[in-house]
Amino acid sequence: MYTEYLDLDTRAGQKVKVWPVPYEATASFAKGARAGPQAILQASYEIETWDEKLGADLADLAHFQSIPFFSAPVSGPEDCYRKMLDYLRGHCDPSSDFLLTLGGEHSVALAPIAFYREAFPDLAVLQVDAHADLRDSFQNSPYSHACVMARVRELGIPVVQLGVRSLCREESEVISRDAGPDQFVSFAWDVKAPEATAAQVRAFLGARPLYITFDADGLDPSIMPGTGTPEPGGLGYGWLADFWPHVFGDARLVGLDFCELAPQPAAGVVSESVAVKCINKILLSAFLARGVED
């Protein structure tokens, strides 16, 4: 069993607490996200931390400390959310700890977002996702993976939604109704060049603390086949790799999750490897932007 992320010998830069949450209860199509955290940890051992394009090494800017795999209750997603939040309150400090949460289904993102909201009232969230996740309730649960961003918006958090290309009528109506200064939606079919989109996002975020929630299905299934609800027409790795170095202006990244990876053995290890590359690129870009040195 793999328990460390990247397995680095160095202890430089920002300490990142890594929290595997193999929870999967409300997944509505293909299953397997419970195996996501372990697959990401295993793949991370094989991924280089040097980034030739950015001319920097994540190992110089960050080191990783694992915290125990979360043991989810069987009493449902609302109880899981509350127990996750209780755990974070007892073991982490949102004002100083940087948390990398590895899901699990996307419902697990709500607890760390709410946790950081307690320390940062002006928190903003950037969501990479094929789906809007704005349903008020899905399959009789308001805490389903399909409702996570509706709960985030209820907390009064401004949201950037990037790569959305599948939504129901209710979600479309919510996006139209709530159009304004606290919502920025970039549909996948409308996305501009990476640097231009990053400039729009920077303008939206301002100097707010930022949390990123990354659903694997935000990526195109040609490079991310390992997810339970794949949607064609997704974001490419190259687009995102060019986007992240330009998005962190005055906004300071405080936490990150990567969810909905469902490993597909028949496809090899491409999905989990892409997940690690995405995580590393975000962290390196964010820490370079804020000048982390020790």
What topology does this entry show?
Elements: E1 14-21, H1 36-44, E2 50-51, E3 56-57, H2 58-61, E4 62-66, H3 77-91, E5 98-103, H4 110-119, E6 124-128, H5 148-154, E7 159-164, H6 169-177, E8 183-187, H7 194-205, E9 209-215, H8 237-247, E10 252-259, H9 270-290
Parallel strand pairs: 1-4, 1-5, 5-10, 6-7, 6-9, 7-8, 9-10
Antiparallel strand pairs: 2-3
Write structural notes for this entry.
It is a single chain. The protein has 294 residues and is an alpha/beta fold. 33% of the residues lie in helices and 18% in strands. The protein is built from nine helices and ten strands. It has helices spanning 36-44, 58-61, 77-91, 110-119, 148-154, 169-177, 194-205, 237-247, 270-290, and strands spanning 14-21, 50-51, 56-57, 62-66, 98-103, 124-128, 159-164, 183-187, 209-215, 252-259. Helix 1 (36-44) crosses helix 9 (270-290) and helix 7 packs across helix 8 (237-247). The longest helix has 21 residues, at 270-290. It starts with 13 loop residues before the first strand and ends with a helix. The mean pLDDT is 94.
Provide key terms for this protein.
two-stranded antiparallel ribbon; Arginase, Chain A; 33% helix; 9 helices; alpha/beta; eight-stranded parallel sheet; 294 residues; 10 strands
Number of helices: 9
Element pattern in H and E? EHEEHEHEHEHEHEHEHEH
Return the CATH architecture. 3-Layer(aba) Sandwich
Order of strands, main sheet, comes to 4-1-5-10-9-6-7-8
CATH class: Alpha Beta
Number of domains: 1
Structural class of the helix and strand makeup? alpha/beta
Strand count: 10
What's the mean pLDDT score?
Answer: 94
Shape: globular
Q: Which fold name is given in CATH as the topology?
A: Arginase, Chain A
Uncertain runs are none
Q: Helix share of residues?
A: 25-40%
